[in-house]
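#onboarding

Welcome to the new folks! Below is a worked example of what a typical request in this channel looks like: someone posts a single protein sequence, and someone else replies with the predicted structure as tokens. Don't worry about understanding the tokens yet, we'll cover that in week two.

Example request:
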Amino acid sequence: MGKKIAIGGDHAGFDYKAKMIEKLGSLGYEVKDFGPFTTDSVDYPDYVHPLSTAVEKGEYELGIVICGSGNGVAITANKHQGIRAALCWNEDLAALARQHNNANVLAIPARFISYELAEKLAEIFLTTDFEGGRHSNRVNKIACQ
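Example response:
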């Protein structure tokens, strides 16, 4: 594998994030934890903006952000022109996010799915390739710049 992955979120996603870091490391991924580092209540933009900047700059190939609903982290990540964050709660959405949208950040709703499903979504997201073709033109029109 060997991909460099950025991961972060908020206090609601902390437990999933900790388990995910261990799992991804065991699969050979190099994982950078952008925080938070405790379950204390935090403001997710403080962690998601630095993560998104690092993915935009190419320091990490893909990112995973985890919060209670997945919405806050996805909205924050998507403020970055070079980020295409996809909120996913089932396997088909995780695959399509990569295949059709070339998403580079996976947003996981920790309070709404099991950890086992979250892990499966991450595995699908990290191993699925962008199909290109007709989807490339659409993806190229997403950014406002």
